[in-house]
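Sequence, please.
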């Protein structure tokens, strides 16, 4: 059977999915809005911050995140009422940090079961210890085939500068994955599709923890030699973890897994690496969080991954080390010295 070209798939879904919504007002939400409005899509945008909403409507800039980006105002409908946005949408892109996602989604009174929900979130819901897909399925009755995940190495700051980026859209329904890919493909964003929705979600969650580990090591004064060993051990640890959670034939070296890990572990734009660097330099968790204007999702993910790892009996020395520093108050110096002896 010959697969339909993306243009045909796009046209097929356009008839039923005219309205796209983005929930969230941060950097990644802003970058996704930029991409889709440049693709001539009208976007309904939910953001909690009334001041940011007013500024966007007036000058087309988000005053708090990626403020250099000028968005196309005529293609935007912005509201601080989440239900107003959701009711208008056929496709909903979630770009709210997982630490606040449960609270925000519980405000929704509309039925989500007949909508396509796209997770641009990289973490675990703290209240339920679930990644976003199973959470939406269990708590909002969204069919798994209506849930997609945006994965891959793609810092919002580089998207804002039109630097070449790669995204993988994962969904059990390949046609829906292809459709979402057409929404996000631009001259500077290349897209691919996958059916590994569970694996890509867990990879996106785990790489933030490993980036915190890289940051702690950097803050402690470890060099590039150690960092390379840390990252090579991290990808093996990620492979064991995901395999134990969800067995599926996958290439862990693909960009949705290894690529995302590398960019988050090494990039100066990585908020999780930055957070870890503060911790390595001696900041408390509270002080490190206060220094940042963005959420480091790896902090919340470390606790969830630790608990889930115990359930799945997975060997996770790097996750264990990060958890010990962040949640048990263990010395970063002593903890990473012990960790260094376990790596190879």
């Amino acid at each position: 059977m010959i697969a339909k070209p993306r243009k045909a798939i796009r046209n097929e879904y356009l008839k039923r999915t005219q309205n796209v919504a983005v929930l969230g007002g941060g950097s990644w939400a802003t970058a996704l809005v930029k991409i889709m409005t440049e693709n001539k899509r009208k976007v309904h945008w939910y953001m909690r911050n009334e001041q940011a909403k007013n500024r966007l409507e007036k000058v087309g800039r988000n005053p708090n995140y990626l403020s250099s980006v000028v968005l196309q105002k005529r293609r935007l409908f912005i509201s601080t009422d989440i239900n107003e946005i959701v009711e208008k949408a056929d496709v909903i892109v979630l770009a709210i940090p997982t630490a606040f996602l449960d609270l925000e989604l519980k405000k929704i009174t509309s039925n989500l079961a007949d909508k396509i929900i796209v997770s641009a979130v990289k973490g675990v819901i703290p209240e339920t210890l679930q990644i976003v897909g199973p959470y939406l399925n269990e708590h909002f009755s969204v069919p798994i085939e209506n849930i997609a995940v945006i994965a891959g190495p793609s810092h919002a700051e580089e998207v804002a500068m039109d630097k070449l980026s790669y995204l993988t859209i994962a969904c059990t329904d390949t046609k829906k994955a292809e459709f979402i890919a057409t929404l996000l493909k631009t001259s500077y964003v290349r897209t691919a599709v996958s059916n590994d929705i569970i694996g890509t979600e867990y990879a996106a969650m785990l790489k933030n923890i490993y980036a915190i580990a890289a940051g702690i090591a950097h803050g402690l004064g470890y060099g590039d030699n150690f960092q390379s060993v840390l990252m090579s051990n991290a990808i093996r640890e990620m492979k064991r973890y995901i395999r134990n959670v969800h067995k599926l034939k996958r290439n862990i070296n693909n960009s949705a897994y290894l690529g995302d890990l590398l960019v988050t572990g090494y990039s100066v734009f990585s908020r999780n690496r930055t957070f870890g660097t503060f911790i390595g330099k001696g900041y408390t968790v509270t002080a490190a969080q206060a220094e940042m204007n963005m959420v480091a999702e790896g902090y919340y993910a470390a606790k969830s991954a630790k608990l889930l790892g115990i359930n799945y009996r997975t060997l996770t020395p790097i996750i264990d080390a990060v958890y010990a520093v962040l949640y048990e108050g263990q010395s970063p110096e002593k903890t990473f010295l012990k960790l260094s002896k376990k790596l190879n």
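The chain has two domains: 6-195, 199-340.
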